[in-house]
Amino acid sequence: MEKKTLFDKVWDAHVVKSVSQGPDVFFIDKHFIHEVTSPVAFLNLEKRGIGVKYPERTIATPDHNVPTVAQDQTIKDKLSRMQVERLRENCKRYGIELHDLGSAHHGIVHVIGPELGVTQPGMTIVCGDSHTSTHGAFGAIAFGIGTSEVEMVLATQCIMQSKPKKMRISVDGELGNGVTSKDIILYIISKISAAGATGYFVEYAGSAIRNLSMEARMTICNMSIEMGARGGFIAPDETTYNYLKGKRYSPKGEAWDQAVEYWNSLQTDQGAVFDKEYTYDAADIEPMITYGTNPGMGIKVKGTIPSLDGMEGSNKKSYLKSLDYMGFQPGEAVKGKLVDYVFVGSCTNGRIEDIRSVAQFVKGRRKADNITAWIVPGSREVEKMAHEEGLVKILEEAGFELRQPGCSACLAMNDDKIPAGKYAVSTSNRNFEGRQGPGARTMLASPLTVAAVAVTGRITDPREVFNN
Amino acid sequence: MAYDKFTVLKSTAVPLPAENVDTDQIIPARFLKATEREGFGDNLFRDWRYDVEGNPKKDFVLNDPTYSGKILVAGKNFGSGSSREHAVWAIYDYGFRCVVSSFFADIFKNNCLNIGVLPVTVSPGFAEKLFDAIEANPSTEIEVNLPEQKIKLLATGESEPFDINEYKKDNMQNGFDDIDYLLNMSAEIDAFEASK
């Protein structure tokens, strides 16, 4: 029998038709929408005089553009308000499930999908957002699409896609103390580069990946796009099933048993061939941080920024432009540098385990005076748990400001902006120029490293604070 | 929605050799608040193009009257990051119909093809030739021939073939989009959905 990868199995099961000399007509099981990339798609449906084909397959929430304070009041920013109102109107008109601001399951689209059990193994999931790859943690093919494709999914439940190549990235062995799944993915991207997986869909494998919780797996899959990959996923296992069992949209009773039986078949066959494979040793991974303006520019927190050796032409020019933006020099250490802001949140690290790890770390400590510390839960559910578990109290005593759920300072569409020239160590996913506000300087790291930075006020390896 | 047909484009080009230009640079998130597809060209490369007071930065290529045209020649890994189609809307709205690079990010490339901006992937060597030629003579013309799948530097006659699948090529040449195709498959999609 032909040996198939997990990717082949799930992809092939969703091809309605292969267009000769062209892409596949690819069926989408679940579609998430938010206020920023959907309005033009709905507008075009209207212009064409067509509706939404399977409204029950789409779920909506406003997240990108919402304020993280006073969510019970009318949104002040006129344009943001219009986008959110448009989303409400469109959901009402077409019968789409909406998790609105203030409702029990409002939150970042990639946080609430798993929380609700909408995300399940073997599914195809898209959203007009490149971090849709987060849902890959469940063994789903999930990826970001543009607004034209949002329109296609609304209108036909299909998109036209060419099948990407297949890459497997294995991480084996035990992670050291203070090393998290965020460090794994920052390490991988620093090895492969911000473009190294372009054209591929990644399967993450190996014992270090297997040993991760679902939330930690989501952090890894979330950042697949940051090395250019279309998406990345992890084969489902007991960890996946334990997470999903009892969730609102998870199958129940007999349907659950049948689902698990099917999900168990969602594994890459022994001997199946990938177009590219990388293997890493978990023991080589240490707390990571980025120093430049793309997520591939990462080093160990205790490491030094690469020198200019061997660089030339446009490569060197781009590198120097990036360091100039960050205010750093080639060859220097980052450890000990003063920081102005820390941000804990986003679809990468805005879940309850992230908030727990920060709270545990800062308990009984206080943030440094030079630090402004924001913590933004990924969803209402996360916020509720953080209150119930007493984490909010710990964080507030440590000087953190807790805000309401949303994408917030990850992309700074709302008022949560890092001022120009200031340094932010952030649990989010992108350190692009201006990503967290015009002129803002972002360094990406794990929640644990961010907690250490908050306490010391400087770039700090969390293991050193542990030891004290 | 339907867009201008693309067959043969002959134009001068604007060079942007920076590498890893992400879609946050092409259009920053704070300009994504519209509910209609209008006026995005004004904010194309906003933070590279204007200072905080909104004054044009003289050293940015879009503010340099030496360079103009319907072709943007970009550095490698162009369009990485966010899936925002607004980036391509901004490029189209500004007046570009073709982006040339030695390497495109995936989602960006798809978005281009979906709204009628032709992404042309060339070899790194040919990209260098284009940059050099434009630098030497900003009024040098480039011909992008979609039916023949060929890009040519008119001054020297040097050319290179480029790839595009037949389906997308046909769409671009006729100004069709994928929805036209998918709507015609409604019955097949229904049958597929019912089998799930």
Automatic annotation (TrEMBL), chain A:
InterPro entries in the cross-refs: 3-IsopropMal_deHydase_lsu, Acnase/IPM_dHydase_lsu_aba_1/3, Acoase/IPM_deHydtase_lsu_aba, Aconitase_4Fe-4S_BS, Aconitase_4Fe-4S_dom, IPM_dehydratase_rel_enz, IPMI_cat
Alphabetized PROSITE patterns for the sequence: ACONITASE_1 (PS00450), ACONITASE_2 (PS01244)
Lineage: superkingdom: Bacteria
Chemical reaction(s) catalysed: (2R,3S)-3-isopropylmalate = (2S)-2-isopropylmalate
Cofactor binding note from Swiss-Prot or TrEMBL: Binds 1 [4Fe-4S] cluster per subunit.
Pathway: Amino-acid biosynthesis; L-leucine biosynthesis; L-leucine from 3-methyl-2-oxobutanoate: step 2/4
Cofactors required: [4Fe-4S] cluster
Chain residues that bind [4Fe-4S] cluster: C347, C407, C410
Sections of the chain in a coiled coil: none
Class in the EC hierarchy, top level: lyase
Domain Aconitase/3-isopropylmalate dehydratase large subunit alpha/beta/alpha intervals: 8-457
SUPFAM superfamilies to which the protein is assigned, alphabetical: Aconitase iron-sulfur domain
GO molecular function: 3-isopropylmalate dehydratase activity; 4 iron, 4 sulfur cluster binding; metal ion binding
EC number(s) recorded for this UniProt protein: 4.2.1.33
Family label: Belongs to the aconitase/IPM isomerase family. LeuC type 1 subfamily.
NCBIfam families in the record: leuC (TIGR00170), PRK05478.1 (NF004016), PRK12466.1 (NF009116)
Protein task: Catalyzes the isomerization between 2-isopropylmalate and 3-isopropylmalate, via the formation of 2-isopropylmaleate.
Quaternary assembly: Heterodimer of LeuC and LeuD.
The protein's name in its UniProt record: 3-isopropylmalate dehydratase large subunit
TrEMBL record, chain B:
Taxonomy, superkingdom: Bacteria
GO cellular component: 3-isopropylmalate dehydratase complex
Catalytic activity, EC: 4.2.1.33
GO molecular function annotations of the record: 3-isopropylmalate dehydratase activity
Pfam families: Aconitase_C (PF00694)
All copies of domain Aconitase A/isopropylmalate dehydratase small subunit swivel, residue ranges: 5-123
Transmembrane segments: none
GO biological process, one term: L-leucine biosynthetic process
The protein's annotated pathway: Amino-acid biosynthesis; L-leucine biosynthesis; L-leucine from 3-methyl-2-oxobutanoate: step 2/4
Keyword field contains Lyase: yes
Keyword line: Amino-acid biosynthesis, Branched-chain amino acid biosynthesis, Leucine biosynthesis, Lyase
Function: Catalyzes the isomerization between 2-isopropylmalate and 3-isopropylmalate, via the formation of 2-isopropylmaleate.
PANTHER family on file: 3-ISOPROPYLMALATE DEHYDRATASE SMALL SUBUNIT, 3-ISOPROPYLMALATE DEHYDRATASE SMALL SUBUNIT 2-RELATED-RELATED
Name of the protein in its database record: 3-isopropylmalate dehydratase small subunit
Biological source species: Algoriphagus hitonicola
Lineage per the UniProt record: Bacteria, Pseudomonadati, Bacteroidota, Cytophagia, Cytophagales
The encoding gene: leuD
